[in-house]
# Entry
Amino acid sequence: MSFRDWYRIDRLPTIYCVGCGNGTVINCTLHAVDTLGWKWEETVFVSGIGCSSRAPGYIKTDSLHTTHGRALAFATGIKLARPDLHVVVFTGDGDLAAIGGNHFIHSCRRNVDMTVICMNNWIYGMTGGQGSPTTPRGAITTTTPYGSGEGVFDLSALAVVAGANHVARWTSYHVKELTRAIQTGLETPGFSLIEVLTQCPTAYGRRNKLRDVAETVEYLKDHAILLQKYNRLVQEGKPVPEDMFTVGEFIRRNRPAMGVPP
Amino acid sequence: MQGNTACAEGALAAGCRFFAGYPITPSTEVAEHMAVKLPKTKGVFIQMEDEIASIAAVIGASWTGARAMTATSGPGFSLMMENIGYAAMTETPCVIVNIQRGGPSTGQPTLGAQGDMLQCRFGSHGDYSIIALSPASVQEMFELTVKAFNLSERYRVPTFLMGDEIIGHMRERLTIPDSVEVIGRKKLDPGTMPFKAGGDDIPGFPVFGEGYGVHVTGLTHDERGYPATTNPKAHEKLVMRLVRKVESARKEIADYRVTSPDAEQVFVSYGAPTRTVHQVLHDRPKEEIGHLQLRVVWPFPEFALSEFPEAKSFLVPEMNLGQMAREMERHTDVPVIPIPKLGGELHTPDELVRALEGSR
# Structure
């Protein structure tokens, strides 16, 4: 099989805008499941609400497109009832961190065996560009027209302290690294979060001087700093630019997990 | 045995193998009993972070083919409304037990009420139908839980066991039969579109993990299961079928008990107030007093009222301000006299007798 065989061809094209990063993330995910030789009959994709959450509709496995923020709770039911099935969740920053924040930390704590891929584009895209828990301070959105005055969640850091077995962050530029990270997530027993910083030219970019998709992907590349490099700079007492974000694998461990197949 | 425990035993007898819940008085004993029993029978018990997550996990488990249940009370029931609508829209079999307590809000955690009877029917947004049963004894907590599973599986609809604190915490003798009738859900014929229904309006169920490759969404969907949100015809067709599959089966689903059909005065009850009606009938053996006990409350069996052709008044004791009496008024020209009772205590026989005499 190739990753293309996982698509529900009759559902294409997707609803995504030109330049959206979500397609890249779906491709990387399907590459990963295909590389592992998973069978589509034994895999379930689950999602909540938002642009990211439309992804399972384009994949030919059994798929559950649920209510806003609740995907992880639905996925927990599926995985505990059928541990032999592979469960993968697509979610976004609004879905996972705002309305689904409680389910997020508790799913990490339970360490339920599933892989969660969060397309973090700092914005509510589906509803037209409102501020989310990851909208950078100062960014313009339709609900922060004078610039966001709120702090942001670091989703990966949250997942680490909440107990997830595997946490990694990459961007839509880093397709090779992202695919490998997803693959590691799929293989790691317990809860895995793959956070992907990805561009939303329509709802975020055009209000925040990131209108051009190629420029935005360049921005993601230029502002990403490898975790190891970041740690070295800190250790050496050297300054790290404030607008940089770390990428890489934040944790891989083997805490007791739930729903692991026997 | 306690009513709540009998409910859990009924679920186990009916083949329930997944329970997700969140502690809440006065329903918690259902969860506690499932927590003890399910792991011993290769079932799954999980305490979720809230009631929203509990019903979500139940629905997820149901898509793997498991018979799944949750139990709660007023405040938790309110939280579940969002995903109850999702279960209705996606036609997911699941049983929701509501051991009702006094509301609104946190209200009276330790006292009984029947204030959620309209909420269970209409509580989630949009048009849909559900099935609700109401037990009046510990034995019925067992029997109607079994029945709730069978109806839910058969009609692919969220089904409610609308108990209350009085029956839930009551202790009575319970007879558990050696086996109970278990009706499974009809599977989807391979090659058939997953949300295409036959004459009974109930599509076959495509169990996850069996190669159906089905897409399930709470969005308006076509017969393939694909979103069709801006198609007015698809929406109307879907919602009409969701309602029709239950409402057109009202006679099949109905479950009620008739006493003295020739009576002019007829008590209509469900749940705990049934006990007081029984007491009144017992105390006044020489009078002809009718009684209709509804064991299935929704879909409302309006034809049951015509079992009393001589009826001059229907007296309806409820532990609310007349929620089902309101529904009855839509269906009969006979005067419907609500006998509301709030506060958490059951009607006394005297109160019912006064209403009876006042109606003559």
Notes: The mean pLDDT of chain B is 98. DSSP finds twelve helices and 14 strands in chain B. The interface with chain A takes residues 17-18, 20, 44, 46, 48-50, 52-54, 56-64, 66, 68, 82-83, 86, 206, 208-219, 226-227 of chain B (CB under 8 Å). The two ends of chain B are 40 Å apart (CA to CA).
